[in-house]
Write a structure and sequence with these properties.
Elements lengths: L1 E4 L2 H12 L36 E4 L5 H6 L9 E2 L2 H4 L23 H4 L4 H8 L4 H10 L2 H4 L2 H13 L4 H10 L2 H4 L3 H11 L5 H10 L5 H13 L7 H7 L2 H7 L2 H11 L6 H5 L8 H15 L4 H10 L8 H14 L3 H10 L8 H14 L4 H10 L8 H14 L7 H10 L4 H13 L4 H10 L8 H14 L6 H4 L8 H16 L5 H6 L6
Antiparallel strand pairs: 1-2, 1-3
Keywords: Transcription, Transcription regulation, Transcription termination, Transit peptide
Family: Belongs to the mTERF family.
GO molecular function: nucleic acid binding
Length: 526
């Protein structure tokens, strides 16, 4: 007696419950009744090979009990007694006359040989799954065969249109086969095409491979909520690239996300999130609010002032409030007031991101050794805050050595101020500035004197400085020594300040005029 079924689903219904059929290709599964040792029952080769390869064949014991056994198979699986076996000239099988039961013996043809592969199989093969992998995936996920071919094909084409490569798509399908069959993926992929044009391919692949289909609707709802509250749609992909999708859109209820949006609207929505999307990862009450309140308190309770500071560097909100309080205590121990620290932070918000132990403490100690008071340190930080964060090995050590070589003495305020000015330029530019000044006849002693009198002289761009020196000597017909008396001349804009004022005054008073009086007076007085 031969039973035929033309579906993998039917195969699972028929073979799975009683025989543990797993669909491994070209492997025979056999369950035999217990036999005495050495008397194992051997069945003849199954005649399945002589049947059509598009049928699943099960050879049942030739007994009147077999039909009653079929009634125990789970509906809606139905079978037809195949007459094709009668038309084959296969030899008659001599099989034991016993009831059909899980203890009976069976021989099965391999799945790939006897099933007629449906559209799902060939689509999987197009995704570079071999036959064994495709068979195993279809048996583990029969819903793929129940999905319309057009739907499967549309999902594949849409995924490829989003920039997902064949190899990546293969990995995604193996890990999450429902990406081809689940109805939730259709609307999500449409949303990605319409609203998430800036999403990175790697991020999209991670979402598809790790987020269960039942949560995709929540992701769409959360993203739509951001847009409804005025978040610019062209930057939505940027947010998806940087936030924790699971934390922001899956685990957090929509009402909590909306509560965070309303809170941010008091200060910097959507600017803060545009600058630092990871702010959305934060817990509103446990993380975001305490951090914002710290800067408001540091600004004297002024919400606008605190928000202005955060707006300069929204990334500050990624640090814990305990870190901010620890830094505040350190600066208080240095002698700075909360108001002074707030002013420094407005100039350089990263002052709170610098490591206290590795950078802040040793560098403040250096300034103290140079004879600086708390007031001096405050002024120094306002003018040269980068001193606190630049790498010592790659940057500061080279500049310090350079300043000492031109004549600055260790542990002096002049060295500290020159050091601060040097943080705003590169070592290469400092070298070029020295070369330009030397080319006009100045000595190292002259350059040192200029540096002490006007600390910024070494930070000026060497190309701009050379043009000013050329104008001073050739057009204004001045002696280079005048630079020693007024080195700030090199800091003024050549076209808008120096040339313009010189031409006006030259017509009135001629060429003999003080550089200091020419340039240092305010525009109103001039």
């Amino acid at each position: 007696m031969v039973l035929c079924a033309t579906s993998t689903v039917v195969a699972r219904e028929l073979l799975g419950p009683s025989l543990g059929f797993r669909g491994q290709r070209r492997k025979r599964f056999r369950q035999s009744s217990v036999q005495p040792p050495g008397q194992e029952e051997r069945w003849p080769r199954s005649p399945c090979d002589s049947l059509s390869q598009h049928s699943l064949c099960l050879i049942l014991p030739h007994t009147s009990a077999a039909p009653s056994s079929l009634s125990r198979l789970s509906p809606p699986v139905s079978f037809a007694i195949s007459a094709s076996l009668a038309r084959q000239r296969a030899p008659r099988l001599q099989v034991p006359n016993r009831d059909f039961s899980p203890q009976s013996s069976f021989d099965f043809c391999s799945l790939g040989d006897i099933l007629n592969p449906g559209p799902a199989f060939w689509i999987l093969r197009e995704l570079h799954l071999d036959e064994k992998e495709a068979d195993a995936l279809l048996l583990a996920h029969p819903e793929l065969e129940l999905t319309a071919q057009e739907s499967l094909r549309d999902h594949v084409l849409t995924l490829k249109s989003l920039g997902i490569s064949d190899s990546a798509l293969r990995r995604i399908v193996v890990r999450r086969p429902d990406v081809l069959s689940a109805t939730e993926f259709g609307p999500f992929l449409d949303f990605v095409l319409a609203k998430l044009k800036g999403i990175k391919r790697e991020k999209l692949e991670r979402i598809l491979a790790t987020i269960h289909s039942e949560f995709l609707e929540g992701i769409i709802a959360g993203a739509t909520l951001l847009l409804d509250h005025g978040f610019p749609g062209e930057h939505l992909g940027h947010v998806f690239n940087h936030v924790n999708i699971r934390k922001v859109f899956r685990e957090r209820p929509l009402r909590d996300l909306e509560e965070m949006i309303f809170y941010l609207k008091r200060f910097g929505w959507p600017k803060w999130v545009l600058s630092r999307p990871m702010i959305l990862n934060l817990d509103l009450h446990g993380q975001l609010i305490p951090r914002v309140e710290f800067f408001i308190e540091l600004g004297g309770g002024d919400e606008a002032a605190g928000a202005a500071l955060i707006s300069k560097l929204p990334a500050l909100l990624t640090y814990a409030a305990d870190r901010f309080r620890s830094h505040l205590e350190f600066w208080r121990s240095v002698g700075l007031t909360d108001e002074e620290l707030f002013k420094v932070a407005l100039v350089y918000p990263n002052i709170f991101s610098v490591s206290k132990e590795q950078k802040l403490k040793p560098r403040i100690e250096f300034l103290r050794q140079c004879g600086m008071s708390a007031e001096d340190i405050f002024k120094f930080l306002v003018k040269a805050p980068l001193f606190m964060s630049l790498s010592f090995e790659k940057n500061l050590s080279k500049k310090l050595s350079f300043l000492v070589k031109i004549g600055h003495r260790h542990q002096t305020k002049e060295l500290a101020w020159a050091f601060g000015a040097a943080t705003r330029t590169s070592c290469e530019n400092m070298q070029r500035v020295i070369e330009v000044l030397l080319s006009y006849g100045l000595s190292f002693e002259d350059i040192l004197a200029m540096s002490k009198k006007h600390h910024q002289v070494l930070q000026y761009n060497h190309k701009s400085l050379e043009k000013k020196m050329e104008f001073l000597i050739e057009d204004m017909e001045r002696d280079v020594s005048e630079i020693l008396n007024f080195p700030a001349f090199l800091g003024y804009n050549l076209d808008d300040r120096i040339k313009r004022r010189y031409e006006i005054k030259r017509k009135i008073r001629g060429k003999g005029m003080s550089l200091n009086k020419l340039l240092s007076v305010s525009t109103e007085r001039f």
